[in-house]
Design goal:
Length: about 90
């Protein structure tokens, strides 16, 4: 299965982009293999949701932490979403 984003990697830092035209069905619940620090570089209307929690809006400049194995997803917004992901383990 092809990933629903494009990305580039330099060491433990990933630059990831999601298209505003992505089919929402591709934005599935998932978990990661490492702890990650997420920084939002560009967004409009996108949201983030941890399992069993209320979604929160992704705003430019926001940073948050995802623990290894914690289930989560993104919810499509109005423009392309651009993130910087720093893998911590």
């Amino acid at each position: 299965m092809q990933e629903p984003y494009s990305q580039s990697r330099e060491g433990n830092v990933i630059k990831r982009s999601f298209s505003k035209n992505i089919d929402e069905m591709e934005l599935i619940w998932h978990k990661d293999e490492t702890d990650r620090l997420i920084s939002v570089d560009n967004t409009s209307g996108w949201q983030f949701q941890f399992d069993n929690e209320t979604p929160f809006e992704l705003t430019m400049g926001l940073s948050f932490f995802i623990t290894k194995g914690r289930i989560h997803r993104v919810i499509r917004g109005n423009n392309d979403l651009e993130l910087t992901i720093t893998e911590l383990g």
